[in-house]
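Regression check, magnesium ion case 178:
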Amino acid sequence: MDRIRLFDKEFALSINPARIQNAVSKIAEEINRDLTGENPIFLSILNGSFMFTSDLLKKIRMDCQVSFIKFSSYEAISSTRRVKKLIGLDEDIKGRSLVLLEDIIDTGNTIVSVVNELKPMKPKQIKIATLFLKPGTYNGDINPDYVGLEIPNDFIVGYGLDYNQLGRNYEGVYKIIQ
Ligand code: 5GP
Ligand code: MG
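Current build output:
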């Protein structure tokens, strides 16, 4: 499929499934090389990373665990400020090697927030793997250790990524047609 329509927007295929799988394989090889013997915990940042996580883990050749985390935002009682809270982490991560799995890093705010929540729990190390990186907009202080593909600053959907919750189910990645 070359084009898809989600709500009012049209999207054109920009990264085909084979290219995505190559990028996932490259990340898996690097992790297999770097973390053998570490028994890492992969922490998949939901919702966007579910497909990346599934394909990546099939290519990991070592003892490892996987867990899924997400940010829930809620209104604090005493203020109208939106507070984000990391939910879903039930493992004891003290002394463990972590690999955060992100679908895409854009500004870097999300990954910086996740790292800041995890650091006080004293993991041995935190590695960051992102399938896609938009280098033009990234302004976080934390550099990803593993990057699948650097992409231009277009809004994309597919392979786990959504537009208002639609489009996550496609095997390829589609970019918005302006
Ligand atoms: P950041 O916090 O780095 O700006 O953005 C990270 C999150 O924003 C990603 O996990 C993803 O959910 C969302 N995001 C950033 N760029 C895109 C994009 O091009 N398409 C979609 N669907 N989500 C994006
Ligand atoms: Mg995400």
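Comparison notes: The first helix runs from residue 17 to 35. DSSP finds three helices and ten strands in the chain. No diff flagged against the previous build.
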